């Protein structure tokens, strides 16, 4: 019957039937991406190199094991050890791949039914074997070389794309230049003053980011209007509630501003961090003095533009004696504070996202497992989390930080201690998150639809993913965004104490700390501006959390919403 | 009335009776294995019965009697502590892994609360399709078609596939739940109070749907309910459950018209009598159902039974006094179980009143306005002494020795009663005692 096919089409078929809105949206997206092609290409290359580094590291493990074992037990044992390690690594990879990419049961497809419940193991075994074959092909045959060549070619292509100038790049709207004897400016955008050029660039960056965000939202609306099969979903109500939640929207705006700061840090500062903060003596610039052009290094110039109270001061929105523009003034070392703050945002965001991301992953996985199985797992988790919670968080963080710093552990080197800090924060904060979502998890685990899933044989893993995680994730989002604020404060507080992230990596808390002796003088800005930014960002994350909570809280408007819904359902 | 005790607690099916499920001495306890100790909750405490292919077996009882646990154990949502559940000869309590998953296709459950049984973040289509996805039935397109047809079958529309449960009324949601249980084409379905959460106006529709589906697909139902009128309408046979035991089981009409077991009597007397000339009074049960963690010894109903067998020497006592004695025993049982805090103990040692009150206070309360003959006085005083010494167990022992009888001493047998093979779990069907109906008339008539 024809209607059988009308009401049963895949997303692709639905788009084919009515391609216009999708094409319009895609065209818009393409334009937006084209404007930033270089940046996108660079990001891909960067992610690619990270992945390669990681894979290379993993591939090196069997070799390391072989060396170690061979050293103590002899060559043959070394080979065996390497083989076992390699197999183990592949098995772990197989579990991941099965989970992510293989939706069907290979065992059923291949008719390998043992009827003994060993399917999972056989399944993973099969994937491991397949992986091993691929790995062997790559390592021992020309396939590897061909693959290498293909990747190399792709990287080259991307790298050359990466050199394309983009809209938001500093060079597009340069603000660094020197005054000409005639009174104009040389080297800046359209000969405008550095201040104006910089302001235009900041505006362009924010405008671009806003347009991208709006366009992505538009994409969702296009999907919702033209291609989604359900004309109503529970999420629609939440979105509508959020739309009228001005406090939440304020939070979203703050968070958006902060994230853009972190992403576009290199373009937002009037000068790059590399030139002004990290290696100031390796970068020179020109300025006009006594009617003649002089050349000076950033470092030397910084020495003369320090803000240390009294007359030694370059305040916000001013030029220093080398005609460098400082939107937020300079710090006590004469470095540009605004640049410092932009890169500091990046540091905070990276640490915040890493630590809260990890903590969220741990907390949500544990909450589902403990709520589903209860019993011993639950007791153990309670004990573990209570132990961690019983120690004051800040003290624990301090302790661990000092411990690793004293031991000079190599992990301290990653991101100037930032990575370690993120790990510690994750370890300290997951129990709190787990506690906060324990109630909702237990509640959802006791819903009858979880029993129903069990009654038709759904596996515990899938039950957790399909029937529990959607509920838990919305709750965890609320607490995660609240906690992100806390993490930013803790990171700043640690830097304030001279711990956590070591210089020169910019961190807001360090600026607050270093500027506090000048707070009452003319150089008040060094502490005050980063302090205010911390307050705004933390408030922003809290407001966003509040907004999400009110948006998903079924109490807020449950009454008439469900009545309407019932009416729609009943009328059909 | 045949009054012979049945040797086994179940009847061997005749050759012409097609038995689908055989339940044998099934027990489901909760919490017994917890590391915090304490006796387990005996939710189902040794039940045996058969379910015939194509029939609807009703399971009734007050809430907390274990009927839902029994239903959930049959579909292996709870694991049995002991006993067997044989589906076509296979003991499903022993199944695990692949075999269990395969078996689950044959037996499904419809839950009581359609608000809780449907994941409201999924569309109706996804909900109904999930069992098919789990068992990898057909291609995705075939699955979607099948789901649409099922929606049709249960009286919804094919277009409802992409709606969310929120958009439906309670009755429609229950239809969605029913559609989901049908996807795997099971033979046996446990209906756990499928209409009790629904508006009265839609209950009948859903019941009719269930009947139609049974007809169409040849389903076998276990219908759990506390609404007896619904049971009378839909069930072929009924099992009456109390405190984890089946008190009486037999063909619906006969059981309703002529209940044999004292518990069935009291349960049925709770239904408003359509016939005003009927002489049967409402039987009020004293007390609340006992805690299933501490079921009474002997007959499970013995703490509340209106026709409990009394020792001959006290046969002449009036009902008021018996009620008082029962209340006293109930109170002492509670005290025996209650946790005493250290402060309570110290207060007792010092002779002060603890929150439990003194035994004299209790006696005053319970026996205040009944006359207590001397032969009753004597064991009561002895019991009081034990309680003063803080030993409720011995006090209860004394009272049991004096006033207890066979009902509290040993569990009854199943007796075949009536003309069809109806079974009832009560000592009073034995030859040496008068029948429950007779005594009921006397004590409550
Ligand atoms: S055995 Fe005794 S207590 Fe139990 S139902 Fe029969 S008469 Fe009542």
UniProtKB/TrEMBL annotation, chain A:
Coiled coil: none annotated. Residues 345-545 form the ABC transmembrane type-1 domain. Pfam families: BPD_transp_1 (PF00528), OppC_N (PF12911). SUPFAM superfamilies: MetI-like. The chain crosses the membrane at residues 20-37, 77-101, 126-147, 195-217, 245-265, 349-372, 379-402, 414-433, 472-502, 522-544. The keyword Cell membrane applies. Keywords: Cell membrane, Membrane, Transmembrane, Transmembrane helix, Transport. InterPro entries: BP-dependent_transpt_permease, MetI-like, MetI-like_sf, OppC_N. Belongs to the binding-protein-dependent transport system permease family. This is ABC transporter permease. It comes from Saliphagus infecundisoli.
UniProtKB/TrEMBL annotation, chain B:
Pfam families: ABC_tran, oligo_HPY. It comes from the Archaea. One of its GO terms (biological process) is transmembrane transport. Residues 21-268 form the ABC transporter domain. Belongs to the ABC transporter superfamily. NCBIfam families: oligo_HPY. This is ABC transporter ATP-binding protein. It comes from Saliphagus infecundisoli.
